[in-house]
Design brief:
Structural class: mainly alpha
Strand order of the largest sheet: 1-2
Radius of gyration: 24 Å
Number of strands: 2
Shape: elongated
Oligomer: single chain
Distance between the termini: 76 Å
Strand content: under 5%
Length: about 220
């Protein structure tokens, strides 16, 4: 690269060469691909067993299991393959180029944001329901019905999509060129009060679930 300065402060570039990366399979890419295959097969097999058995699929606790397995399958089919394709361009440097396009980057972050939030809340539901069953078995049998579990999971998805839309929609608008800067989260200029509210509201569904369980026990 040759840079020439003159009195008019013009800058001219000569002999500029673009560096290209040849994709190749490495340990990280193969590992993510293996996780995608195994995750889809294992989660899909267990989910099929539950769904084809009426007694299993209508059990209240299995509603959370079905939700969790569905999230695993979506992550295995979307998140891991995109991650494996991206890792093929890894050069061992701090910066990993992203040649899969902006659309793939946006989809990648949608699955990560919504999927991880949904998985976290689903595990919280499962843990809270187990505590409810152990500490208050009579109340659990009376109130923890299939309808209750479906309502909890449905409200969770509506809530999570509403919350994550605050990041999903503005993300592409503020994300820099992915081929130059990689597929990374871009800072969104939210006021600090909004940031605090978004972070604290993440645990609202868990608190509501536990609070409802205690009220029904009385």
């Amino acid at each position: 690269m040759k840079i020439t300065f003159n009195h008019s402060t013009n800058i001219s570039f000569q002999n500029v060469t673009m560096v290209t990366f040849t994709p190749s399979w490495n340990f990280n890419a193969l590992f993510l691909l293996l996780m995608a295959i195994l995750g889809t097969l294992i989660s899909g097999t267990i989910l099929s067993v539950i769904l084809f058995n009426r007694r299993l699929r209508t059990h209240p606790f299995h509603i959370y299991v079905i939700n969790s397995l569905t999230i695993n399958i979506i992550s295995s089919l979307v998140q891991y393959p995109i991650g494996a394709a991206s890792e093929r361009y890894d050069t061992g440097q701090t910066f990993t180029p992203w040649y899969l396009g902006t659309g793939a980057c946006n989809l990648y972050f949608v699955v990560i944001s919504v999927g991880e939030s949904a998985m976290s809340n689903t595990h919280a539901f499962m843990a809270a329901s187990r505590m409810w069953a152990i500490l208050l078995p009579v109340s659990y049998r009376l109130h923890h019905t299939t309808k209750f579990a479906l309502t909890a999971v449905g409200c969770q998805w509506v809530y999570l999509w509403l919350m994550n839309l605050c990041f999903i929609v503005p993300g592409p608008l503020f994300r820099r060129n992915v081929e130059m800067f990689g597929c990374v989260y871009s800072p969104i200029p939210y006021p600090w009060m909004v940031r605090i509210w978004l972070c604290s509201a993440h645990y609202t569904t868990k608190v509501i679930f536990t609070h409802y369980s205690v009220l029904n026990a009385r």
